[in-house]
Fold these 3 entries.
Entry 1:
Amino acid sequence: MSAPQIFNTLIIGSGPAGLTAAIYASRAFLKPIVIEGKNPGGQLMGTTAVENWPGEKSIFGPQLMMNMKEHAQHFGTQFLSREIVRVDFSKHPFSVFTHKDEELLTHSVIIATGASPNRLGCSGEDDYWGKGVTTCAVCDGAFYPGKKVVIVGGGDTAMEDASFMTKYTNDITIVHILDKFTASPAMQERILSNPTIKIIYSSTVTAIKGNGSHVTNIEISNQVTGQTYSIDTDVVFLAIGQKPNTGIFKGQLELDKMGYISLNNTTHTSVEGVFVAGDVADYRYKQAITSAGSGCMAALDTQRYLEKIIK
C-alpha cells in the first residue's frame, strides 16, 4: 500500500492574498495547491472597476482575479474547487478536510480565507451589490464625484468613510440604527462638526431600489416612530463591520477577541508551519493590495520554513 501524498503547502483561499502567495510559492518550486473555497476570487468578484491596483488605471475586479489566477497557473499552481470544512493542526503533517470528505496532508498551510462584510439583509441589497451598494469608500468613492451618498453605520469605519467622501461630494447622509454614534469621540467630532453631513439616527435601511442597473434610492424606517420614507442616493456604503472567515480554525489557532487570526512575527500563527495572509488577519487596512503584499510575505515565510523541515 503506497504512502499518502503529502503536499508541500496548501493555500486556503483564492482572493488577492491567496493568489499572490500562490505566485510566489510556485515560482519557488513549492508546487502549491490552492483550495478555492465556495467564493473563488474573494470579495473583488463582486466589484466593478478597480482603480487603485498599481499598473492598472482601471480594471474590473473579476478580470483582475482571473489575471492573477492565470498568472499562478502559468508557474504551475494547481487549483482545487473545494471548500475546507475542518482542519487538524495538532500533528504534523497537517490534515485539511474538504466538503467531499477528502483528507489532504500537507507540510505547511497558508490561510487566506478573507473576511465577509456584514450585510443589511434588506430587499434589493443583493440585486444592487456592486451596482451602487458597496463596503469600501476608499475603493469606490472616486466613482461618485458630486453625487448623493448614503453611509450606513455609526462606528469608526462609518466616520472614516464619511470624512473620506467629503473629498468628492457635499451630499452625504449617515444612517445609524442607534440614537448616537459608537465611534471614538475624536472621529465623531470630525463628522458632527461638519454642517454638510446629514445624520439620520435610530433608523434602518429597509429596502434598496434602483433602475435595474444602479441604485437610485433607499427606503428608511425610523425605529422609534415606525415612520417609513424614501431618500434618493447614488451609492450606499455599508460600514457595519465584517467577520473574518475563521470558523474552521477555532480551537486550532489563536484568535483575537474579534475572531481574527492572531499574528506572530508578521505572518506566523500560533502553530509553527501555519501562516496567514490578507483580511482574515487584517481588520485595519482591508485593501486588495495589502492582502496581496501579505500573501507575498506568507509565501516567503513558508519557503523558509519548508527549507528547514524538508531535506
Entry 2:
Amino acid sequence: MFSANQTASVKAPFFIDTHSHFDAAEFDADRDAEYARARAAGVGMLIVPSITRDNFAAVAATCARYPACLPAWGMHPMYIGIHQPEHLANLRAQIGAQRPVAIGEIGLDFFVPGLDPAMQVFYYVEQLKLAREFDLPVLLHCRKSSDVLLKHLRQIKPRGGIAHAFNGSAQQAAEFIKLGFKLGFGGAFTWPRANHLRRLAADLPLEAIVLETDSPDMPPSWIGQGRNSPAELPRIAAELAQLRGTTVEAIAAATTQNACALLRLDAFEALTTSA
C-alpha cells in the first residue's frame, strides 16, 4: 500500500483510469498508439474490466502487453443473455489464475429494456459473494439501480468498490460512501446540460471520488459522439478541477490516492516508470 507521502513523491500529475475497456475492438487498429498517448498525458494506470467469460482472454492479453493495464474480472449485467451459471465457475478459476484488482464489471442495469431483473440480481449476488471470498473490491454498473445494489451490498459486504459512472442522488452517494465505496466520474459530467452530475462532481467529498473514462464509451463533450480514450482523462480531471475551484494537480493527487487505497495497487510505484 502506498502512503500519501509516496504518492506525493511521484511526478505530478499522475492519473489512474479506474475503468477503461481498453481491450475493446474499437482500439484494435491503434491500441499501441492510444496507449502511448495516454501514458504521455500522465495516465499511469488503467483498470480494464471484463464483461463476459468470453472476453477474459482479451483482457488478459491486453494487460500482458501493456504494463500499466491491470485486470478486473466480472460479468456485466447488460450481457445477461450470454451468461450461464457455469460461467461463475470460469470466473472463479480466472480469479485464481490471475488475481485482479477488483471484481467487475458487475452490477445491475434497470434502464435498458429487456434485461431480466431477477437474473441480473442472481449474477450480481453470486459475484458479490466471490468478491467477499477473495477479499476484493467491486466495480459496479449502477444505472437506475442504486437502491437495489445497496440492499445487497449491506447484506453481503464486500471490501468496498467503485460505483462506476455514478449518477444517483446525493443520498445514495452517501450510502455508497458509508459502505467503503468511491464514486466514479468521467466524461458524462463534462456536458453542459448534465446539471445533476455536475452538482455531484462539485459537491461530493473529494476523498470519495475516482476518475474514469469508460473508454471507448462515455465520451466527454469535446469528443461528441466519437470514440473515447484513456488519454482524455487529464482533460476530464481539468474539468473537475474547474468545477471544484481547485487545481488539476490537486485532483490528480487526491483521485490517485483514493484509487490506490481502495484497489491496493501495490505495483503503483513501479508502473510510474513502466513503458
Entry 3:
Amino acid sequence: MVEHEADSIGKGRRYRLAGTAPRLYERAIDAVTERIARGGLPAGTRITEVSLAEQLGISRAPARRVLVELEARGVLERARGRGYVVLEGVAGSSSPARDDAPLPLLSQPSWELIYGEIENEIVARISFGDWRVNEMKLARHYRVSRTVARDVVGRLQQRGILRKDDSGRWVAPALSHERIGELYELRAILEPVALVKAAPRLPSDLLGRMRAGLEAPLPESDEDLCATLDRLEQELHVALLGYCGNQALMQAITLPQSLLVAHRFLYRWTPRLFESEPFLPEHLEIVKRLQAGDARGAAGALEAHLNDARTRAITRVDVVRHEVDVAEIPYLEPVKAMSSGAL
C-alpha cells in the first residue's frame, strides 16, 4: 500500500511504502464472516474465545479481538453465560450448531496465517538495506506465541530470505549489486543442470501451455500484469525445473531463487520499466528448444537468460531504492542503510 499513487514509477516522485497485507485478526474476521454468510456457522451458533482460537490456530488475544469486532458490526451478540452467538439474518442457515461443535474455519497451521504478510514486508524492504528480524517483537506484533514466530522465521530461512549473522541473529540481507550478482551466478550454474534432467520427465501438455501463456497478450492493468509476470517466472524456474527428479539439486536451487520472491515486489513497482518485458522472448526461446527436443540448447538459452536478467534485476532495485520510502515495522530493525555507492 502506498500513501499516494502515481501513473508509473520513474517520474521523479517518491512513494511511501506502508503495510502490504491485512493483520492476522483482520484475516480471521474475514474467515469467520465468510463462514457465517455461507451458513457454516448458522444463526444461534455459540462461539467462544477458546474455541475460536483453537480452530483458527491463533492465540486468545486476536480471537478476543475478532469477537469484539464482529459484535460491533452486528454479526454476533454476547451470549448468556459465555461466548457469543451468531445473530439471525446474517447467516446462510437458521439451524444452530451445537455449542461444542468444531468451527469449520481454517485448517492452516498458525504460522501459515501470517507468513505471507511477513514475507511481503521483508522482501519489500531488502532493496534498501539489511534488516534484522526481532523474533520476540514479531510474536508481540501479531499476538502469537514465540513458537509460531519461530516457525515463520524457519520458513523464511528455508526460502533463502533470512540467514543468521555472526552473532546468531536473524538477518534479511540486502539486494546489493554484489548479492544479486552472486545469486544469479549460482542460478546460472544450477538451473540449466536441473532443466536437462527435467526435460525427459515433463508432462506432455506442459510446454504447450507454457508457450501459449508466453505468446498471449499481456493484461492492461499494472496489477494483472504484475501477477502474470510472476506466474510466468514461476512456471519456468519453479514448476518446470521441479520435474528434474533430484531433490538435493532442487534444495540447492532454493537459496538463489529467493530472487523470485523479491521479483514479485519489484514487478509491482516497475511493471512497465521496459517497453516490452525482456524475459518473455527469452523464456519462449527456452520452451521452443525443449519442444524441439533440444534440452542442451534449452539449457544454454536458460543460462544466457539468467546472465541477462541479472542486469535487469539490478536496474529494478535501483529504481525502487531511489523512488520508494518504507514505513517502520516494529519487528524489523535496519542494520545499515545503503548509500548510492553501496550498490
